[in-house]
Amino acid sequence: MESIRFIHTADLHLGSPFSGMRDLQKEQWQKLKDSTLEAFDRLINYALKTKPDFVLIVGDIYDGEDRNIRAQARFQKGMQQLANQKIPVIMCYGNHDHLSGNWTRFELPENVHAFDETVSQFKLATASGPVTFTGFSYGKRHISESMVKQYPVAQNQEYHIGLLHGSLEGDSTHAVYAPFKKEQLLSKQYDYWALGHIHKRQELANEPAIVYPGNIQGRHRKETGVKGFYEVTLSKTTTQLAFIPTSVVQFDRVAVSAKGIIHMNELIEACQDKLSLFTQGAGAAIIELVFTELDKESFQLLAEIPESELLEMLRESIAEMEWFVWIQSIQLQQVEQDSELSPIGATLIETIESWEIDNWKAILKDLYRHPKSSRFLEAVDDQTVGELQLATAQKIRRRMQAGE
């Protein structure tokens, strides 16, 4: 059989509200707010230019079950553009845009096949022969059972592709939905598994390929780096994956060495140089700025300044850069961290670093139970705890140096 070529994307999250972003200027906020829609436009334009055999969209097209009406209009327009070029789309809905939500209906063109809440198959005729797709959409927000058990085993030599929006069993980085084991997918003898739900790009297997493309646009500081989709060339013997970037605003961490710096103008210049170089490759970005190689003098220079003032000053210093760059937060990595730390400060840091997730949950429970604030907070996981420990230790070091 001849090879087939298609686009595999997932987790578009069109209409994402970008909760938690503060202090952005009006134009900067609008660019961030529109970034998922613009990333989607880049995907559509690529498909129109390259004309794949079909496009796969594996869940969470929209960010919420109410399906933002502006996002729906943009998605319908994109599907119609593909229809005009006779490019088929096979898709499913995920936990964010499940079928039980309430939304204003848009009719999608005939080139789009959307799976319903039961596992089913759809056959598509291509120039290289028929392709059978198996998948389902979320009928409700939470699906805890293993849906892959209902996927039939491939029975003939046609191409078989599985669409599955779910979690690898044992992966705690995301909420667990429709869990599966890699061995279960391999047992179905499909030629390709198109996954969604996990926002980090990764290949779980090569023969056959079991692939998460990640999302097309980062939405917060934990979704760092370039985002996009895969263009897949598939034959019965090989699978070739080409990553196509689409992210409009890149979330990332940028390290700036403060070694030997004793004056603030030196620090500003170092930041300007590093961020100018970073944006040449990344474009617009929202970053966590990490000052590294801090010795006693450079740490003292920064520790004496309130964090809010330091942020404001650094943001102003890069305001005229060619690309929009927003410094969301600052981290300090001191070389001689505890040489001048007071005994009580060292004890506090040691105690905090010994806390486990359960300790943090107990401490933060009132905040997370608050009806207004809780919806803006991220889940307390290992990464969140690590960041809290680092931020807390830095505040202690800034305020409890020996003699204070």
UniProtKB/TrEMBL annotation:
UniProt xrefs under CDD domains: MPP_Mre11_N (cd00840)
Database matches in Gene3D superfamilies: 3.60.21.10
Keyword match Calcium: no
Keywords: Exonuclease, Hydrolase, Nuclease
Protein name, entry field: DNA repair exonuclease YhaO
GO molecular function list: exonuclease activity
Organism encoding this protein: Planococcus faecalis
This protein's record includes keyword Ribosomal protein: no
